[in-house]
């Protein structure tokens, strides 16, 4: 199957290649429900050595510069309690950590979670974190601009491979919230 964005050799419905995904992501796809069917979530193979944005876009298609999103794990504390969330923003924007995210988490200060914490909590590889398959109860904040994309390229849970999903599908992820102005 041809990918709807990018210059990938092949796009495969994610339910047909669960063995290429980390277990939390595979489990999320197995249990996928909602108006966007699971077979509309596509997996594409990518070279982890070409993960740098400029090299990635040059290799896999100029259109990906405006159709890619990052899933960033953030943390904050309130009353000694750590609060974690995942934020999905367009790759061309910056996450508003100490404005929108801080207010949503109801913390004094929010920051990017350390790499070790992000990969330890998610069971995913650094550089491949995706909103699918995150720990139970985590808020998943999705920027409205990403949700409006017809197709968006996101991580697959591993550094090798990406998922292409309709932007609105991200709102089907458990605990997903549409947030205006999350990316700036």
TrEMBL record:
Residue ranges of domain YbaK/aminoacyl-tRNA synthetase-associated in the record: 50-171
Matches recorded under Gene3D superfamilies: YbaK/aminoacyl-tRNA synthetase-associated domain (3.90.960.10)
Top-rank taxon, per record: Bacteria
TM spans (from-to): none
Protein name (record): YbaK/aminoacyl-tRNA synthetase-associated domain-containing protein
CDD domains registered for this protein in UniProt: PA2301 (cd04939)
One annotated GO molecular function: aminoacyl-tRNA deacylase activity
């Amino acid at each position: 199957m041809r990918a709807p964005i990018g210059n990938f050799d092949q796009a495969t419905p994610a339910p047909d290649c669960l063995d290429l995904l980390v277990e939390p992501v595979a489990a999320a796809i197995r249990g996928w429900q909602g108006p966007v069917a699971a077979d509309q979530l596509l997996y594409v193979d990518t070279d982890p050595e070409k993960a740098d944005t400029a090299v990635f876009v040059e290799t896999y298609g100029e259109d990906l510069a405006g159709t890619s999103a990052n899933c960033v794990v953030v943390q904050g504390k309130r009353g000694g309690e750590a609060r974690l969330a995942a934020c999905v923003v367009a790759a061309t924007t910056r996450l508003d950590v100490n404005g929108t995210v801080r207010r949503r988490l109801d913390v004094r200060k929010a920051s990017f979670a350390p790499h070790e914490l992000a990969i330890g909590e998610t069971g995913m590889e650094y550089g491949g974190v995706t909103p699918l398959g995150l720990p139970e109860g985590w808020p998943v904040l999705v920027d409205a601009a990403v949700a409006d994309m017809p197709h968006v390229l996101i991580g697959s849970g591993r550094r090798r491979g990406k998922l292409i999903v309709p932007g609105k599908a991200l709102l089907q992820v458990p605990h997903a919230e549409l947030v205006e102005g999350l990316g700036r």
